[in-house]
Amino acid sequence: MAFWSSTSVFTSKVPRKILFMFTLSLSVTYLFYSLMSCYNSLQFPLQENYVYQGRLVTEETTFVTLREKLYSASQGFTEFTEADRTTAVSTVKDHAEAEQRTVEWIRTQASPTKSAAAAAAYHTTALEREHQEFSTTDSELRMNCTSDYGEKKLPQAIIIGVKKGGTRALLEALRVHPDVRAVGNEPHFFDRNYEKGLDWYRDLMPSTLEGQITMEKTPSYFVTNHAPKRIHSMARDIKLIIVVRNPVTRAISDYTQTLSKKPEIPTFEVLAFKNRTLGLIDASWSALRIGIYALHLESWMQYFPLSQMHFVSGERLIVDPAGEMAKVQDFLGLKRIVTDKHFYFNKTKGFPCLKKPEDSSTPRCLGKSKGRTHPKIDADVIRRLHKFYKPFNMMFYQMTGQNFEWELEDDGESRSSQD
Question: What range(s) does the Sulfotransferase domain occupy (predicted)?
Answer without folding.
Answer: 155-390
